[in-house]
Write a structure and sequence with these properties.
The chain is an alpha/beta fold and 463 residues long. It is 41% helix and 19% strand. The protein folds into two domains: 245 residues, Aldehyde Dehydrogenase, Chain A, domain 1, CATH 3.40.605.10; 185 residues, 3-Layer(aba) Sandwich (Aldehyde Dehydrogenase, Chain A, domain 2). The N and C termini lie far apart (58 Å). Keywords: NAD, Oxidoreductase. One of its GO terms (molecular function) is acetaldehyde dehydrogenase (acetylating) activity.
């Protein structure tokens, strides 16, 4: 069935009203959503005792139904996310939901290692942690909850979410969807849980609760630092300021197209997206030409100052600008840009505040470099040691190798838009929790399990 924009808006409004006035009892109760964090944790613990006993086939049935329901509700959740947070692009959020539904690893990611020889058989099995606590962002709210849940449930865990308060409605819609998916195929309720009003206090209760051994945090550096200070094992997906480097050997026309496509995807909300360009001198003019061909608007020095004052109000990131499209941002400084404008560009030094700061907006500062070594030095400086993501356009394998070693990021995309790293136009699986700070990298089901060695000595070897 094709749903037009007005029908979709009516559906979203009805869902948002339901979520706003949701009672914790009665027919409209959202499954897995509690008033009290301790109550939510207890419910998840009870559900985990059931999940742990389920066969891998049963877990996979639940996950398959989560995938199905995510695809069915992708457009609705995309619209809800933009409506509630005021950030992002509905069409791109639909694609992100489709991507996670189709390419997030399930139980197939839980592999057994075996050694067999004269002295018997030894297995390494991956077992659940139990109840996992998860903190999720407002930039990819339902996407992170759904993606985390698929991997964590595949590992035999249940999950307690403390969503970002700015995205609580769409987040709890996703929690309800996951529980519906479980119940529909014979699984338990409360396989994932959340609270109606997440706060710092509910987060603190979750972080300190004795029944939660593992915390996964997807968000800014502050929340990751809090998790890593909790005394529990933490998986931290923190900040990034991904540079994209372009050298003189690159296909400049393709590089410009890829950079704009990656930078503007969901209005630059993905943490992996291109945030600034470092280019060698001899190709800068050609690169700018093709960037303009792909919908970039070049701002003057005066306009840069105005834009800086708006998006970095009093030196701090203006949250009202995050995730807005280029034309909206330009309108804030009095520029009525043409309909084809997708991105804002300018030249500046690496210390320029619109280049140095991770903005999560389709704004690309271009930093000139005299040669590849200078470009690498500047790009490494701009990444600020987050070790998150970096990108490069080049046909020189030595240059690619040199930059890859120097930047040392969890993600390094060559000659493609940044989103290729998540399996969209590239190989590999999808995730929305990239644990650069704690070293796990792109998380999947196996990330949320612990190793168990099972040994049978002097038996079960029949060679």
């Amino acid at each position: 069935m094709v749903v037009d924009e007005k029908q979709l808006q009516d559906i979203v409004n009805k869902v948002l009203v339901k979520l706003q006035n949701n009672p914790q009892s009665g027919q409209n109760r959202l499954l897995g959503v509690f008033d009290d964090m301790t109550e939510a944790i207890n419910a998840a613990k009870k559900a985990q005792s059931i999940v742990q006993k389920l066969s891998m086939d049963c877990r996979e049935k639940i996950i398959s139904n989560i995938r199905k329901k995510t695809l069915e509700n992708a457009e609705l959740m995309a619209k809800m996310g933009v409506e509630e947070t005021g950030m992002g692009n509905v069409g791109h959020k639909i694609l992100k939901h489709q991507l996670l539904a189709e390419k997030t690893p399930g139980t197939e990611d839980i592999a057994t290692i075996a050694w067999s020889g004269d002295r018997g058989l030894t297995l390494i099995e991956m077992g659940p942690f139990g109840v996992i606590g998860a903190i999720t962002p407002c930039t990819n709210p339902s996407e992170t909850i759904l993606c985390n849940s698929i991997g964590m449930i595949a590992g035999g865990n249940t999950v307690v979410f403390n969503p970002h308060p700015a995205a609580i409605k769409v987040s709890n819609f996703a929690v309800n969807l996951i529980n519906e998916a479980s119940i529909e195929v014979g699984g338990p309720e409360n396989i994932v849980v959340s609270v109606k009003k997440p706060t710092m206090e509910t987060s603190d209760i979750m972080l300190k609760h004795k029944d939660i051994p593992l915390i996964a945090a997807t968000g800014g550096p502050g929340v990751v630092t809090t998790v890593l200070s909790s005394g529990k094992r933490g998986i931290g997906a923190g900040a990034g300021n991904p540079p994209v480097l372009v050298d003189e050997t690159a296909d400049i026309k393709k590089a410009a197209e890829d950079i704009v496509n990656g930078c503007t995807f969901d209005n630059n909300l993905p943490c992996i997206a291109e945030k600034e360009i470092v280019a060698v001198n001899e190709i800068v003019e050609e690169l700018i030409y093709y960037l303009i061909e792909n919908g970039c608007y070049v701002i003057t020095k005066e306009e840069q100052d105005k834009l800086t004052a708006v998006v970095l109000k009093d030196g701090r990131l203006n949250r009202k600008c995050v995730g807005k499209d280029a034309r909206t941002l330009l309108s804030m400084i009095g520029i009525n840009a043409p309909d084809n404008i997708r991105c804002i560009i300018f030249e500046g030094e690496k210390e320029h505040p619109l280049i140095d700061e991770e903005l999560m907006m389709p704004i690309l500062g271009i930093v000139r470099a005299k040669d590849i070594d200078d470009a690498i030095e500047k790009a490494v400086w701009l990444e600020h040691g987050n070790r998150h993501s970096a990108h490069m356009h080049s046909k020189n394998v030595d240059n690619l190798t040199k930059f890859g070693k120097a930047i040392d990021t969890a993600i390094f995309v060559k000659n493609a838009p940044s989103y290729a790293a998540l399996g969209f136009g590239g190989e590999g699986f999808c995730t929305f929790t990239i644990a650069s700070r704690t070293g796990e990298g792109l998380t999947s089901a196996r990330t949320f399990t612990k190793q168990r060695r099972c040994v049978m000595a002097d038996s079960l070897c029949i060679r």
